[in-house]
Amino acid sequence: YLSVNKTHCFSILFCCKSPSKFYKVCIYLHYIYITSAAHRDAPCFVDDLVAALHDATGKDGELLASSPASFGICSESDSSSRLVLSELSVGIRRNDRRGVEVLDPAAGIVESIMVTFDLPQSQLLKLKPVLVLAFKSPLTDGELDIIFSSQSLQPNTQSACISGRTLYILLTGKSSEGNVEQKWNISVQAKSPGTRQSLKDVLIGGKSGSDVRLTPLLLFSAETGTDTRQTASLSFLCELRRFLDASLPQQHAEPLLLRLDSLQSLPPLALGLSTSETLLAEIINSSAPTIFSFSSWSSSFPVRPGQLALSPALLGELGQRLEMNERQMRELVRQGMVPQRASEKLERLRQLSAFQKQDSSAEGTQYCAFLLLKALQMLTRAYSIQRKLRAARAGPSTRGPTCGLGSLTVFLTDLVSGLLGPQSTDLNNCRGSCAIPLNNINNHAVLLTYHIERGNVNERGPCCVPLAYDPLEVIVLNDEGSFLTSKPDMVAKECGCR
């Protein structure tokens, strides 16, 4: 019975004579499985929460207009919830994201609409805890108003309004003695009649095989000023992922699906203290698009920063290129092509990498600066291509579009669980007319064109095809170290008629 999976669980429910007898057991197993997986596969879970709380208020300490919906706060009249969110956010800002303590409640048991959490012994429980319920996926079926009731909450009854913009729900708990195990029983009710099924969908998923939507975490704001979060290197990687999410150009067309492991690759090259200067210089100066893959990356995997040993000359070149790409990125923000929040995350990345400080040779500093450079190069390249494509579409043409580069976006599906970003990339494609006169055409294509124009329909005409390619570079971090894998001839960069 311990090996029952989600599908088997629902099969048992279907076949047994007394489904209510097994409902609690099946949902219990279902909930344990999903909650454990959520933490195991989401190493940025806590870091993302801290970042969201940090960004909930502006520099003036006031809640942003979008923050209440993100945290399930119902209205202006819900002053207590707004105050809790504001105090958490201001405290995190004041302590530069330090002084945040967390506890993992044991997996919750869902029985009818009662949720039970088992809390471990901890002195943190003497502080005022905040129970955070994090959504794995947003609500897609309208809005849902919920009431939470429990003697473990303070106040005993609290409400939340869930919409498609809601990422978290905050419930304030009572402080208590931390030397005993506790069990929180929380009654959950929908305010409107007829929405009971929607409430179950939010808590446990409404269909066979669906994921539990909520993952619990106990949050404590400890005014200690110490950083008890995950390591600084993990914070850098999580911030890098958020920076890419905020900065990448928006895709308007449905991308093609591509399995990364189906592509040919050159042998992986180790990135570390023994990596040759020639290779590092080549990578730093490469314009090839880069994606970041952390294939063994999880909250149980202790992420260690990679280490590089750059010569003073190459270190100076890295710094110059980093500064140049940062200027380009800030210009994109100034032009409105990239959201303002990307500039704030870029500043945070500079602080975490510590590259601009006096000791740029500290452990992991050069490696973090290297990752940031490759991310910025990838972004500035993406926006440069976007500009060229827009200019080509807007240019005058009397014979229709001539042969040139076009966009071909693919979604990388093979490493989604370990992919830091981006999860989609533009590989370009060549399309357009090959009628004479043309640029970038060779003598054979000219002869083919004249041959076709004389009525020989049995020969093919010149085709618009790629003439040159860039590789797709994948930077991999796993429990064996850091590596660069190159997938050659992936990105079309020049077109012609052949």
Automatic annotation (TrEMBL):
Keywords: Differentiation, Growth factor, Secreted, Signal. GO terms for molecular function: growth factor activity. It is found in: Secreted. GO terms for cellular component: extracellular region. InterPro entries: AMH_N (IPR006799), Cystine-knot_cytokine (IPR029034), Muellerian-inhibiting_factor (IPR021203), TGF-b_C (IPR001839). Its main location: secreted. SUPFAM superfamilies: Cystine-knot cytokines. GO terms for biological process: cell differentiation; gonad development. Transmembrane segments: none annotated. Residues 387-498 form the TGF-beta family profile domain. It comes from the Eukaryota. Pfam families: AMH_N, TGF_beta. Belongs to the TGF-beta family. PANTHER family: MUELLERIAN-INHIBITING FACTOR. This is Anti-Mullerian hormone. It comes from Xiphophorus maculatus (Southern platyfish).
